[in-house]
Write a structure and sequence with these properties.
Elements (H helix, E strand, L loop, with lengths): L1 E5 L5 E3 L10 H28 L4 H10 L6 H13 L3 E8 L2 E8 L1 H23 L2
Antiparallel strand pairs: 1-2, 3-4
Length: about 130
């Protein structure tokens, strides 16, 4: 709404209250559904990198961010622990300066699981992208 007020730059002042409101329940539900949908892709991405080189939490958060995934440490670390519990990853603790860092590597089982998943992803990619 225009109330005849202007900003310090002389532009009309608009009260855009919509941008300050919290997200609606449907927005939150949609975000949760998206997160659930992408969680498998994130797991595959993590497993892929763990087969190529040792990985660690913060490094994976940054790598995933480069691909458009926003994941917090509170979500990633349980994911890494879950992959380790299933036998796909193995972790060791390494000293990084004064602190300790948990480093993950893919196990032979994780490598086989990734190879099988690649086949499924390739098939899905063909249906989704090339099938149009």
């Amino acid at each position: 709404m225009d109330y005849g007020l202007t900003t310090s730059a002389g532009e009309p002042y608009t009260n855009n209250i919509r941008n300050r409101m919290s997200k609606s329940k449907s927005d939150k539900t949609s975000a949760a559904a998206d997160r659930d949908l992408y969680s498998g892709l994130i797991r595959l991405h993590v497993l892929h990198h763990a087969t190529e080189e040792p990985i660690f939490g913060l490094g994976m958060i940054e790598e995933l961010a480069r691909h458009g995934y926003r994941i917090s440490p509170g979500s990633l670390y349980p994911l890494l622990q879950g992959l380790e519990k299933k036998g796909y990853l193995r972790s060791t603790t390494q000293r990084d300066g004064k602190s300790l860092r948990r480093v993950y590597r893919a196990t032979p089982l994780g490598r086989r699981a990734l190879a099988a998943a690649k086949s499924k992803v390739r098939e899905l990619f063909h249906e989704l992208i090339e099938g149009d």
